[in-house]
Structure formats: C-alpha cells, structure tokens
Amino acid sequence: MQGRLIYLMGPSGSGKDSLLQAARAPLEAHGCRFARRVITRSAESVGEDALGVTPDEFERLQGEGAFALSWRANGLAYGIPREIDDWLSAGQDVLINGSRGHLEAARQRYPQLLAILLQVDEAVLRQRLLTRGRETPEQIELRLARSRKLQQEDRERTVILDNSGPLQQTVSRLLHLLDEARQCA
Ligand SMILES: Nc1ncnc2c1ncn2[C@@H]1O[C@H](COP(=O)(O)OP(=O)(O)OP(=O)(O)O)[C@@H](O)[C@H]1O
Ligand SMILES: O=P(O)(O)OC[C@H]1O[C@H](OP(=O)(O)O)[C@H](O)[C@@H]1O
C-alpha cells in the first residue's frame, strides 16, 4: 500500500520547523519519514536542517529531475527531493514542510495528500519572526502580507492545527490527528 504524504504548511513564523523537530522522534518511531528540503538560502541560516544551494545549483538539480516538488516564495527556491516517492511507494508516510502557494500543484501530483495548516494570529506571528531574527523587519512585513493573501485558499480540504499555545500541546494534537487520519485511510 502507498504511504501518505503529510503536507504541513502555514505562514512564515507559525512554527512549522519547530513542530517538525519536536514531533520527529515520536513520528519516526511510527515509521514516518521526513524530507530534507533543498533551499537557495545559506546553510548557516537559522531554522531547519535544509540543504543550502546556489540558484545555479538549484536550476541544475531541477533540470536533472531531482525534485518531487519545488516552488518559489519569499525570493527563494525550495525543492523536496525525489526520494520521497521511493518512501511512499514502500508504504511509508512522509511529512514535508510545504508551501500554501504550491498546495494545488502538490495535490495534482499526490491526490491523497493530507494538508495540515498551522495557524497562529498575526500579532503573535510578527513577534515570533522578530524574535527569531532571521529576516529584516521589511522582509517580515512582506511575509506577513503574503500570508494575508494566502489565508482564504483551500480551507475546506485542510486540517487546521493551532499553534498559539505551547509547542508541546501542538505536537500532541498533531500526533492525535495523524492517528485519526490513519484509521480513516
Ligand atoms: N508554540 C510556540 N510557542 C512559542 N514560540 C514558538 C512556538 N512555535 C514556534 N515558536 C517560535 O516561533 C519562531 C518561528 O518558528 P519556526 O521557525 O518554527 O516557524 P516556521 O513556520 O518554520 O517559519 P518559516 O516558514 O519562516 O521557516 C521560532 O523562533 C520558534 O522558536
Ligand atoms: O507562504 P507559503 O507559500 O505558505 O510558504 C512559502 C515558503 O516560505 C516558508 O519557508 P521559509 O520561511 O523560507 O522557511 C515555507 O516553509 C514555504 O516553503
């Protein structure tokens, strides 16, 4: 049986990386795999364990068909390595850090994907992004504006996960909803 693609998305600063890190051990214990993203951002940058490449390297990899999914946002290019298809074919669930802007294209390639939208209100988001300090205040405002624009899309087929409270609470909710989804599959 084919594994399920779990597509975690949400505004910049909603806590996707934090949640992926915190939920990783318990989910791996259930056989779930995690994709390491390829991003045209320096490897030293704060945040997830992504592979940082130059725009030229990204183009080359894309041309070679190295990505199962790829998109551009916030002035960066993002790729999800093709190996997720091997994991899915082997029946393993795969969790990825996705983009709301790319959800429709991702659904076309993976019709069974489970979309989870991580949600936090805008004042909290702004504060978290400023505290994280990875982007300038101007870049943060652009990210918040992008979030507002994407807010209404594809709500009815998306599971909402609130991350306004403590991270551990969100981890427990994620594990619970993935259990439920497994039982419905
Ligand atoms: N539940 C939480 N409570 C308090 N702070 C949190 C919580 N979740 C995440 N944070 C903090 O918010 C900031 C943004 O989180 P994180 O980098 O995980 O977001 P992200 O959604 O991955 O953002 P981006 O898409 O821009 O990479 C981090 O500094 C993180 O420590
Ligand atoms: O705004 P949307 O389309 O949801 O997401 C755009 C991209 O921005 C964020 O990346 P990061 O903040 O650079 O890590 C997300 O992880 C996503 O890949």
Automatic annotation (TrEMBL):
Domain of life: Bacteria
Pathway(s) of this molecule: Metabolic intermediate biosynthesis; 5-phospho-alpha-D-ribose 1-diphosphate biosynthesis; 5-phospho-alpha-D-ribose 1-diphosphate from D-ribose 5-phosphate (route II): step 3/3
GO function terms (MF aspect): ATP binding; ribose 1,5-bisphosphate phosphokinase activity
Gene3D superfamilies membership: P-loop containing nucleotide triphosphate hydrolases (3.40.50.300)
Top enzyme class: transferase
Catalytic activity entry: alpha-D-ribose 1,5-bisphosphate + ATP = 5-phospho-alpha-D-ribose 1-diphosphate + ADP
InterPro entries xref list: GK/Ca_channel_bsu (IPR008145), Guanylate_kin-like_dom (IPR008144), P-loop_NTPase (IPR027417), PhnN (IPR012699)
CC per GO annotation: cytosol
GO biological process, one term: 5-phosphoribose 1-diphosphate biosynthetic process
Alphabetical UniProt keywords: ATP-binding, Kinase, Nucleotide-binding, Transferase
EC number(s) stated in the UniProt entry for this protein: 2.7.4.23
Primary role: Catalyzes the phosphorylation of ribose 1,5-bisphosphate to 5-phospho-D-ribosyl alpha-1-diphosphate (PRPP).
Name by which UniProt lists this protein: Ribose 1,5-bisphosphate phosphokinase PhnN
Species assigned in the record: Ectopseudomonas toyotomiensis
Name of encoding gene: phnN
